[in-house]
Amino acid sequence: MIQKSNRGAFNDFIHFLLMTLLSGAMIAICATSSLTANVLSQDGRIVGSLLFSLGMFVILAFEMKLFTGLIPKIPHTSPKSYWQLPVCLIGNLVGVFIVYLLVSQTYFASDIINAGSLLIANKLSLDNWALSSLCSGVLCGVLITLSVLSVDPSHKNGLSANVGVMFPRIVFVFCGFDHSIANMFYFYCLGELSWKVIGYISLTILGNIIGGIILPLVLKLRDNDPV
User: Fold this and answer.
1) Which domains does the chain have, with CATH numbers?
2) 160-218 pLDDT, tens per residue?
3) Which of 2, 167, 171, 173 is most deeply packed, by most CB within 10 A?
4) Helix, strand, coil: what percent of the chain each, to 5?
5) Count of CA atoms in the C-beta half-sphere (13 A) of 193
């Protein structure tokens, strides 16, 4: 009986890990499509945000495990399950890297890598890059949480859940807010590692967490309010 229980727990872990890899891979594909739109189209920002949001919809539809998608669940997560956050983050980053390696061997690699490295290099060149990455990460976290948590309220109020899921993601991509997992694709394109890069990544992750947990905490306070 114990062996069956251990085997089931191991299988659950492997499934969780594979879903983190797939989610990271999907984010990298989204980033690739968004960069391609920017390279090929004059309206690249609009087209790229639409393409990116469609990929994010796939992540939700197949219940893949994305780091920023787990953040809104933190207030309702048992401390025993907190291990999922760092494991998910690492799995996502590996999934992104795998797709980056595949893209780097394609015929359009130079255009994508140049566009990705330029995008992140411009952000790193700002005088207030640290504050910018944190604030941009917070705004992205807020929008991702709105997307994740909009499904149930949409159904209850007779609204389209697709609109609630898609539009916050379109907005964050269009505005260029920093998403910790998507950014890793651009950092892989940049191909540099420095304390500034590590700081930017860390502050974006922190910003995503702060922005992603605000609404869930407010909703939890509301639900626990006896009034």
Assistant:
1) 2-222 (1.20.1080.10)
2) 566 777 888 899 999 999 999 999 999 999 999 999 999 999 999 999 999 999 999 99
3) 173
4) 85, 0, 15
5) 1
